[in-house]
Design brief:
Number of helices: 12
Number of strands: 13
Oligomer: single chain
Largest sheet: 7 strands, mixed
Order of helices and strands: EEHEEEEEEHHEHHHHHHEHHEEEH
Strand content: 5-15%
Shape: globular
Length: about 475
C-alpha cells in the first residue's frame, strides 16, 4: 500500500461520465497552502459589448478635445458625464479606463478588427473577413474554472440581442464575432439569440408536471449511489485519517442526494427569472437583412428593450445559480443596422455613426440608452446576496466596443469601463493613461490576473506593454 499514491487532481468517475472531486488526502502528498491571491481572486466574468464606440472628440495626437462620455471630477471622485449619467447610482463600483488604444488597430477591416481583437488581443489572421489568432479571454477563464469541482451547466454563456444585421445576413461572420474558442483553432462562437430557448435552461427551477424532472432526479441519485460504492472500495486502501476525511466527504455527497429535490426548486438567491412574452420578436430576422439596412423589421426592433432586459435577467440568474461563471452579452453587432423606435430614431445606428455622416446628437441618445441598460444590469447583480457580499462584488464586468470614435473609426481612446470588485478590483475611480501608450492587450492581461492567472502578456506580443494596475 506504500506505493499507492493519488494525484491531487484525482476524481471519482461513474459509468455515466459523472465525476466528483476527491478531498485532499494525506496519500496525495503535502497539501498546498492557499495563497492570499487565491482567496481573493474573482469568481465570475462578464463581457458587455456595445457597438459603435461613443461620442468623444480627439485631436490628431489622441488628446480629448471635448466629449460626452468620460467623467469629469477627479481620479477618486469622478462625476458622470452626459452619456453615463444613468450609471451615477452605481459609480462606486465602476472603473473608467481612459486613454487605452486598441492593440490590433489598423490590421484588418475597421469594424471587424475591433470586435475580433477586443477579447483576443489579436489581429485578423489574413485581413478582412478572417478571424482571430488567439482565444478570447472569456474562454481562457472558462477553461480555468473547468478545473474546479463544480460542474457548470454552461461553461460559458453567450447572448446577443438583435444580432447579425446588415452584411452578415443573420450568419456568424468576422463583423459580429466576439468570442473565440480555447480549442487550438480559435473557432468563432455563435451567441444564443432566442430568449425563449435560453429560458429553457431554468426549467428545473420551475414546477414540472410532466414527471421529466423526477426521472432526471432519480437518475442522478442512482449515479451518486454508484459513486458511493466506489468511494467505499477506495476507502479500503486508505489510512485512518484519510478514511475519516473520505467519510466526511461521503456525508456531503449523501446530503446532496437527499436534497436534490430542494436544489432544483432553487433558493432565495437562485430562482427562475420571471417569464416574459416576447411574441413579435424574431431573433433570426437578420436572415432577411440587407447590406445597407434598408429592410426594417419594426416589430422586432420595437421589442429590443423588453427582450434585452429579459436576457439580462437571465444572465444574472445564470450566474447567481452557478449555471455558469463566464458570460458575454452583445447588444447587436458592429453594424447595428436596426432601428430605435422607442427613441424615435427610425434610421439604424450605422447611419448615425457615419453612413449618413457622423451625427453626435443621435449617437448620444443611443449611447445614453445603452448606459441605462448597463445600469440596470449592474444594479441587478448588486442586489444578489451571495452571503455577506453581492454577485457584483465577486465579479468583473468589462464594458467595451470595437472602436472609439464612430465618425472616423479611430481606436486610440477606447470607451472601456470595468465594474465589480472581483479580485480586489479598486473601483469608484477614473484612471487616465497617457494617450497611445497603453493598449487593450494590457487590460486583458490585468483582467486575467484578477482571476489568478499569472501571465504577463496576452494576444499579439507587439501589442503588450505589461498589465495595468487595477487593484
Amino acid at each position: 500500500m506504500r506505493n499507492f499514491r493519488l494525484s491531487r487532481r484525482a476524481m471519482l468517475r461513474g459509468a455515466t461520465g459523472v465525476a466528483i472531486a476527491l478531498p485532499w488526502l494525506e496519500i496525495m502528498g503535502h497539501e498546498k497552502t492557499a495563497s492570499a491571491q487565491s482567496v481573493t481572486t474573482a469568481k465570475r466574468y462578464l463581457t458587455v459589448f456595445q457597438p459603435g464606440g461613443t461620442v468623444t472628440f480627439t485631436d490628431q495626437n489622441g488628446t480629448v478635445a471635448s466629449d460626452r462620455f468620460w467623467p469629469t471630477g477627479t481620479t477618486d471622485a469622478p462625476v458622470m458625464n452626459t452619456i453615463n449619467k444613468p450609471l451615477a447610482a452605481i459609480q462606486k463600483k465602476l472603473l473608467f479606463l481612459q486613454g487605452l488604444k486598441m492593440g490590433p488597430a489598423s490590421t484588418g477591416e475597421q469594424h471587424q478588427e475591433g470586435i475580433v481583437g477586443l477579447l483576443t488581443g489579436s489581429k485578423q489572421l489574413n485581413g478582412a473577413d478572417t478571424y482571430s489568432g488567439y482565444a478570447s479571454i472569456d474562454q481562457v477563464l472558462a477553461n480555468r474554472f473547468a478545473t474546479a469541482a463544480t460542474p457548470y451547466t454552461q461553461p460559458t454563456l453567450e447572448m446577443a440581442v438583435r444580432w447579425a444585421t446588415g452584411k452578415s445576413h443573420g450568419r456568424l461572420s468576422a463583423i459580429n464575432s466576439l468570442n473565440f474558442a480555447y480549442d487550438g483553432k480559435h473557432s468563432p462562437i455563435e451567441p444564443r439569440i432566442d430568449p425563449q430557448q435560453i429560458f429553457k435552461m431554468f426549467a428545473n427551477l420551475t414546477p414540472d408536471t410532466s414527471g421529466a424532472r423526477a426521472i432526471e432526479t432519480a437518475r442522478t441519485k442512482s449515479v451518486l449511489d454508484l459513486l458511493d460504492k466506489r468511494y467505499t472500495k477506495l476507502a479500503a486502501r486508505l489510512g485512518a485519517a484519510d478514511k475519516l476525511k473520505l467519510q466526511e466527504h461521503l456525508d456531503k455527497i449523501r446530503k446532496i442526494e437527499l436534497n436534490l429535490d430542494t436544489i432544483v426548486q432553487g433558493t432565495s438567491v437562485c430562482k427562475a427569472p420571471t417569464a416574459v412574452d416576447t411574441k413579435g420578436y424574431n431573433p433570426s430576422t437578420g436572415l432577411q437583412s440587407s447590406n445597407d439596412g434598408s429592410i426594417v423589421d419594426t416589430s422586432t426592433d420595437a421589442l429590443i428593450p423588453k427582450v434585452g432586459q429579459f436576457m439580462m435577467d437571465m444572465m444574472v440568474m445564470a450566474m447567481a445559480c452557478d449555471l455558469t461563471r463566464v458570460g458575454t452579452f452583445q447588444w447587436t453587432d458592429t453594424e447595428a443596422k436596426h432601428t430605435f423606435p422607442w427613441l424615435n430614431l427610425n434610421s439604424h445606428h450605422h447611419f448615425y455613426q457615419h453612413d449618413g455622416g457622423f451625427r453626435p446628437e443621435e449617437c448620444t441618445k443611443i449611447d445614453t440608452w445603452y448606459a441605462e441598460q448597463h445600469a440596470y444590469l449592474l444594479q441587478a447583480m448588486d442586489k444578489v446576496d451571495m452571503g455577506g457580499h453581492t454577485l457584483l462584488d465577486e465579479s468583473v464586468v468589462f464594458f467595451g466596443s470595437e472602436l472609439s470614435h464612430p465618425g472616423n473609426h479611430r481606436k486610440d481612446n477606447m470607451p472601456f469601463i470595468l465594474a465589480g470588485n472581483g479580485g480586489g478590483l479598486k473601483t469608484g475611480r477614473h484612471l487616465k493613461f497617457p494617450a497611445g501608450q497603453r493598449t487593450s492587450n494590457d487590460l486583458l492581461v490585468a483582467i486575467l490576473n484578477l482571476f489568478g492567472d499569472p501571465r504577463t502578456t496576452y494576444g499579439e506580443p507587439g501589442f503588450n506593454h505589461g498589465a495595468l494596475s487595477l487593484t
